[in-house]
Amino acid sequence: MPYAALVISAHRTEYPQPIRFKAGEKVSTGKRDEEYPGWIWTTVASGRSAWAPEEFLDVSGTAAIARVDYESTELDTTAGERCG
Question: How far apart are CA 56 and CA 33, in angstroms?
Fold first, then answer.
């Protein structure tokens, strides 16, 4: 079976507690990411916070309404792992 990708360096998530929101849900927003434009620090009703794509939100000040469903889960990888 051919693989679509070969992992060349390991990755460990910095945010093991992902956030989730659904379209229409109200969330709080904070700073915008200066290193990766288009991402905004977002806090959901459970109190968890993580980066989310700003284009997924209608932002007004420090509040926003989600335009789409989103989940911020990151996957851990190991060098040499094959993904497909």
Answer: 15
- Total Cβ atoms within 10 A of residue 40: 19
Output the CA angle 21-24-26, nearest 5 degrees.
65
Q: Is the pLDDT of residue 26 over 80?
A: yes
Residue 1 has pLDDT above 60, yes or no: no
Buried b (16+ CB within 10 A) or exposed e, 53-81: ebebbeeeeeebebeeebebeeeebeeee
- Per-residue model confidence as pLDDT tens digits over 9-24: 999 998 889 999 999 9
CA dihedral 80, 13, 23, 38 (to 10 degrees): -90
